[in-house]
Amino acid sequence: MSYKIMPKSALNDWVQHLRQKFTIVAPKPKHGQFVFGEVTDASEFALDYPSTVLPPKKYLVPTQEELLSYSLDGSHFEMRTEPVPTVVLGVHTCDLHGIKLLDRIFSQGYTDTHYKTRRNSLYLVSYECFEPCTEHSFCRSMGTLSATDTFDLHIINLGEDFAFEIGTQKGESLLEGFQSIFNVTEVDIERINTVHQEKWQRFPYRLDFDVTELAELLTNSYTSTYWDELGDICLGCGMCTQVCPTCYCFDIHDEVDLTLDGGHRVRTWDSCQIRMFATVAGGHNFRAEQAARQRHRFMRKGKYQEDAYGLVGCTGCGRCAQACLVDITPVKTFNELYKRRNNIAEKETEAK
Amino acid sequence: MTDMKINVHHITRVEGHGNIVVNVVNGELEQCDLAIVETPRFFEAMLKGRHYSEASHITSRICGICATGHATASLRATENALGVVPTKQTELLRKLAFFGEILDSHILHVYMLVAPDFLGVGSVIPLAKQEPEIVMRALRMKKLSGDLCAIIAGRHTHPIAMTVGGFTHYPTKEELLDIRKRFEAVRVDLKETVDLFESLDLPAFTRETEYIALRKPDEYAFIDGEIASSDGGTWPLEDYLSVTNEYLVPHSSAKHAKNKRNSYMVGALARINVNFDKLHPHAKSVAEQLGLAPVVTNPYAISVAQVVEIVHAVEESLNILDELVGNCLKWEEPVKPKRLSGEGVGAAEVPRGTLFHHYTIEDGVIQKANCVIPTGQNLANIEADMRELVPTILDKSQAEITQSLEMLVRAYDPCISCSAHLLNVEFVR
Amino acid sequence: MKTLTEVVTKSPSIYQPVPARIVSIEELTETEKLFTVALPGGLSLHHSPGQFLQISVLGIGEAPISISSSPSRSYGTFELCVRRVGDLTTALHNLKRGDIIGVRGPFGRGFPVGRLRGKDLIFVAGGLGLAPLRSLIYEVLDQRGNYGQLSVLYGSRCPSDLLFKDELAEWEKRDDMTLSITVDHPDETWFGEVGLVLNLFDDIYPNPRNAVAVVVGPPVMYPSVIERLLSLQIPEGSIWLSFERRMKCGVGRCGHCQLNHIYTCREGPSFSYSEIKDLEEAL
Amino acid sequence: MAQYERYIRPKVAFFDFTSCEGCQLTVLDSLQTSPELLDMIEIVEFREAMSERSNEYQIAFVEGSCTRPADEERLKTIRSTASLVIALGACAHLGGINAIKNLRPLPEVRADVYGDKADWYDTYAARPISAVIDIDGFIPGCPIDRDEFIRVVKMLLQGRQPIIPDHPLCIECKLKENVCLYLRGKICLGPIVRAGCGAICPTYGDGCEGCRGLITNPNLDSMKMVLEEHGLSFEEVEQKLSMFMAYQTAGIKSEAEGATS
Ligand SMILES: Cc1cc2nc3c(=O)[nH]c(=O)nc-3n(C[C@H](O)[C@H](O)[C@H](O)COP(=O)(O)OP(=O)(O)OC[C@H]3O[C@@H](n4cnc5c(N)ncnc54)[C@H](O)[C@@H]3O)c2cc1C
Ligand code: SF4
Ligand code: SF4
Ligand code: SF4
Predict the structure, then answer these.
(1) Does the C-beta of D202 come closer than 6 Å to ligand 4?
(2) Which ligand neighbours the alpha carbon of A326 most closely?
(3) Does B186 fall in a domain?
(4) pTM value?
(5) Which of D6, D8, D171, D192 to mutate against chain A (most A CBs within 10 Å)?
(6) Which of B299, C88, C173, C199 is the most buried (most CB within 10 A)?
(7) Looking at ligand 1, which residue's alpha carbon is closest to its atom 6?
(8) Cα dihedral C64→C70→C76→C82 (10° resolution)
(9) What is the mean pLDDT of residues D128-143?
(10) Residues C74, C158: one domain?
(11) In this complex, which chains have at least 3 CB pairs below 8 Å with chain C?
């Protein structure tokens, strides 16, 4: 683990330094929230920001992405994923966890070259969280409150200075040639340790049980009537999946040119919450009820993704909770399922 | 020719449905009507009972071409009723969106609807084959005006971000600078446009009438002002009813209007006749180049007046863009109403003339609404023109007469779907 | 010879199809056509029965279609039996001989050919389900000695909907297999069985210990057929099914084909009943 | 659409009924970005923009609602002439703004507006054209979206049934990364309204008013609850839903009560 130190006052100089080679994106304010967007100056963004509307996954799987262009006679295909090297500044640790999961998903089996190309040109500069970013976040419960990997550089706010933890060579290269970078002293290391230690108590646990029990809880709750209750109130608006850092389901469609001699194959985000998602020809819908769609969503977050990729599918970022107009949230859902299961268990023991 | 019947069913290249009916018996003009057969829309009845915040969105649907104009007049009426005074920045942005619409509508009219008559083709579609340069230029200019509306209000037809007391969205500085650059570049197209219209021969026909437009002391009025007549006299907006004196005729689902004479004209030509002194200097010199010196009494010159206004709108837009960029646009929440009940009139010089909206609001809900639309005000005047024109051309073939009449009606750029709004009025006949 | 899979996985994008030419089109019914497709020079499909391809009509889109021909009978060409139901399939039906389509694949896990060796086979097809099963039928017929008895039970909506009529007639004549057919709605030309495919089970007496069943049909068919097979004492692991889901990528990512945690396109489309019986979203 | 047909430079006609003609204007505007359109289709009738007329066309785009008995005849003629009839915009697709008048009993509206001359003009409850003739597709929106119009034309040229999104606007709104209007203290019909407009209203700071119509499976009860939680009275909720969808929410109940003479 190697660290470097940069005075906070040098932030803008560093941004300008990076801009010579990279596009810089960072959290910019928008109507009381933040969104990742291109910046040209340190005054345009904040590193101490609550959360962004969309997670940085949009730089890996763009909301709409041209996969191919072709001529209709099939004589010509072209793949046009040519991402510009981009530095993402201020990625929260929960979002790092999300990207780590996406990395696994898009590289297993047949590699997704579109994802891979974008991923390779992305430089992740994460930022240590000091307090819960919103009332909805529950990262501590999900075990995503610290960064151990996936980042290229990780920034820790030390008051007057920033400490950079260097995660990769890519990360190191971001500091190359920049003047105001200093080696760490023992004092700095101490400050880093203190900061790390102090932050934990500020983050409450919000799940009533340990996250390692989550997958099993969901398995046992598969037939719970709670899903029907969610299905009744869920609007099926799909916001929850759109804003989620670990949702990646997509649609692919073709867009023909008006002259009808060429076309494009386009990938767009999709959502398991909408009616047509699992409908096949003939009209049969394999997930016809909203209750089943909500259950599917939570099963993926709490169990399926973990079973398949070894990482829990919810990062505790709280975005979906903030988005949902009918207050369907992972915390409420998981805790309610837990409560009901315990009640049942209690009744069973009583009966015995 | 002693007997002749002309019946143009659904005049083309105008907005909405109108018929021309001419009946000549024994060389005498028996009937000469512009019949508005557009289906009545009931907008005033629809507004009744709706929340005031919806009014501008509902009334912009009166007309797709002057949607921004309707929204503006509607917002001004509501604001006047509820004691809202918009900020300077709001006024500037509204003017910009308004200029976007003036440009869009005038370019559409002079290039796509009127020019084919002078260039001897049936429409802009063969024109696109015959004179692609002209059509591409028109499309380019129209795109610019549409884009101006879009960055400010989301779109031109049925603007989104314009709301009571201000805006719900603001353009970025980059967007303003970018559109400013394009406005500068469009001056080349403007010159070509002026040259094109200088080369066209207008039919020689004149008839003096009363010209009415909004007037302001310090600018060529488009939004607010007082009502002014070329026959003399000004009226505050609240007195609009005493100017428009609307009445119904059986052959038309739109109302007619008259002030001092039996009819009057509103629109680009009326504005130029009333407000020539307030035109931007560039526009003034273009007017001179095109031989437009007030008072102009040839109704076919309305299209030429529109060209002058195109120049005016481009130059004024550039000024406003400079001012906005210079003062660096800031986020302003819309000004909140002072009260939720009241009565107010809003007026604007939309592309086709003076538009009035008049609302009575109680507890935030609209109780009564009235909209007086430019084309309605022009109808009596168009018919008076037709009655004077027909006897002077009776020696021509029926096809030629029909063509002259259609061109006359088209010159007024009648917006028929607007005018078929029908209100709660006293019937004078 | 290079396989199509090699080309697809080595191309810049896994979503890039390989252009292939339609060499003949046969109209099987009013709504089904059989396309014979040739891969570009030197490419082999190298599939196993039950696998599918992602088929593109460029400018329209892509859809999963089972390979209907058998590996044992493909000489640079393969066959697709396509029912016209919507956008892409209608566009396919509009194509002519010589036209180009895009292919990716083959994808998925086909039928468990290895486990069928030496077994008595019961193939149950409902409607279009015969298309993928046909691939397997020829596989068995071409290596006839490797398998036990073969019974094919085929249910169709009406006589005019029967697929591969010539081949059915041939199969009927063979004495190394039995074919029974039933239709829901008979017409005046029909003298055969009428009713659900379940009725056809009355004539077969499988030895449960040595029998394997492969069932392909519309979703509504599965529960009753499975029930019948179970009642014949066929073990859950010896009942194989093939599932249809919406599929956009074919490689286990787009999410549409998920049944519970399983990506049908990758882990299926064929499953043994024991694998999926506890998955609510399977049946 | 019963049968798919491929079209090579089809003859296309535009017709208008009760409307603001903004959708036709949008069609004209689409030429600014897609001038090739004129090579791909032959426009044979477009009264707003051209004088030429024709009784021969394969594809008819119809703008506007049907608001009087006399319109029905014309619609039927269009239907019998064209192979494909596409409703253009909210008025034709839903009844749209025009149907607000259906909310009050027609005799009252008529008397309100015409006074004692009510019989001068012909009118009845506004309705979508699909209430009068079969249609083969629709392009929703008030006004239509320019890009969607071009997309539909392309699909028609390819012989396809036009695909119009049937999922909620929120999906698209989030793709635009808008801050949800509910978090900005406003209200929006996005969760129950059809996407496809690029969420243009929320993007410009205004709640969705439903001009594209409801999705197939809206959770209306839950939506109403959300609106009420955000301070709307029951009446205001009903009114919100009736701006463009009065025909759908209220039907043409008023017609039964009123004379249509
Ligand atoms: C593994 C596998 C193998 C298959 N093998 C074959 C095969 O061998 N042969 C074969 O013919 N098929 C096969 N299929 C089925 C085939 O993939 C589908 O029929 C095909 O995807 C349909 O695509 P389409 O574009 O023609 O239809 P679509 O246009 O997608 O329409 C499909 C159906 O959904 C409806 N629909 C579509 N969009 C909407 C909407 N927005 N709202 C409401 N309804 C809508 C349509 O009405 C239609 O009924 C297979 C499927 C799978 C998964
Ligand atoms: S955000 Fe809420 S209402 Fe919308 S789909 Fe998700 S859970 Fe349902
Ligand atoms: S499920 Fe909700 S809280 Fe969990 S990662 Fe997704 S958006 Fe964040
Ligand atoms: S603003 Fe409207 S459309 Fe956008 S997410 Fe919120 S509710 Fe949905």
Answers:
(1) yes
(2) 2
(3) yes
(4) 0.92
(5) D171
(6) B299
(7) C65
(8) -40
(9) 96
(10) no
(11) A, D
Contact C60 D163 (CB under 8 A): no
Atom index in ligand 3 nearest the CA of residue A247 equals 6
Atom of ligand 1 nearest to the CA of C246: 53
State the Cα–Cα distance between residues B87 and B75, nearest whole angstrom. Answer: 13
What local confidence, expressed as pLDDT, does residue C112 receive?
Answer: 95
**End-of-domain residue from the set C107, C131, C155:** C107
Weakest-pLDDT range from B31-40, B107-116, C216-225: B31-40
Range of the domain at C166: 113-242
**For the domain that residue B253 is a member of, what is the CATH number?**
1.10.645.10
Find the mean pLDDT for residues B321-347: 94
Say if the Cβ atoms of C59 and D158 lie within 8 Å.
yes
Among B115-124, B200-209, C125-134, the minimum mean pLDDT is found in B115-124
| D226 contacts A327 by C-beta, under 8 angstroms | no
Confirm whether B70 is domain-assigned: yes
User: Which residues are CB-contacts of C31 (< 8 A; sequence separation ≥ 6)?
Assistant: C83, C84, C85, C161
Report if residue C152 sits inside a domain: yes
User: Using one digit for the tens of pLDDT, what is the confidence trace for B213-236?
Assistant: 999 999 999 999 999 999 988 999
Question: Domain range holding B361?
Answer: 43-392
Q: Do residues C19 and C80 both lie within one domain?
A: yes
Atom 4 (ligand 2): residue with closest C-alpha? A237
C and B touch with 3+ CB pairs <8 Å, answer no
C60 and C179 share one domain:
no
Closest ligand 3 atom to A318 CA: 3
Q: Is A282 in the pocket of ligand 1 (CB under 6 A)?
A: yes
Q: Is residue C162 part of a domain?
A: yes
CB pairs under 8 A between A and D: 101
CA–CA distance, B228 with B235 (Å, rounded to integer): 7
Lookup result for tokens 């390692």: A212
CB B300 within 8 A of CB B407: yes
Q: Which residues of chain A have pLDDT under 70?
A: 1
Cβ of D4 under 8 Å from any chain C Cβ? yes
Per the domain annotation, does B226 fall within a domain?
yes
Cβ distance A328 to A315 under 8 Å? Answer: no
3-state secondary structure of D15: strand
Backbone CA torsion sign across B278, B282, B288, B290: negative
Tell me the residue type at B340: L
Contact check, Cβ <8 Å, A53/D178: yes
pLDDT range class, residue B123, cuts 50, 70, 90? confident
Residues C44 and C94 in one domain: yes
Instruction: For chain A, say whether D74 makes contact (Cβ under 8 Å).
Output: no
Please state the atom number of ligand 2 nearest to the C-alpha of residue D191.
4
Q: How far is the centre of ligand 4, averaged over its atoms, from the C-alpha of A331 (Å)?
A: 23
When pLDDT is cut at 50, 70 and 90, the band that residue D261 belongs to is very low
What is the C-alpha separation between B414 and A166, in angstroms, rounded? 70
Say if the Cβ atoms of A75 and C19 lie within 8 Å.
yes
In the reported structure, the alpha carbon of residue B157 is separated from the centroid of ligand 1 by a whole-number distance in angstroms of: 38
Quick one: C134 and C156 in the same domain?
yes
pLDDT for position B33: 79
pLDDT for residue A75 = 87
Q: How far off is chain A from C227, nearest CA to CA, in Å?
A: 20
Tokens read off for C54: 């992602």
- The first and second tokens of residue B298, run together, are 């040839």
pLDDT tens digits, B52-92:
999 999 999 998 989 999 999 999 999 999 999 999 999 99
CA gap A72, D102 in Å, rounded: 49
User: Does residue B73 lie in a domain region?
Assistant: yes
> Closest-CA residue in chain A for C85?
A281
Domain D11-157, classified CATH 3.40.50.700, yes or no: yes
**Total domains, chain C:** 2
> Number of helices and strands (H, E) in chain B?
16, 12
**Res D113 pLDDT > 90:** no
The nearest CA of chain A is from the CA of D168 a distance in Å of 6
The chains in contact with chain A, meaning 3 or more Cβ pairs closer than 8 Å, are C, D
Structural domain boundaries of chain D?
11-157, 169-260
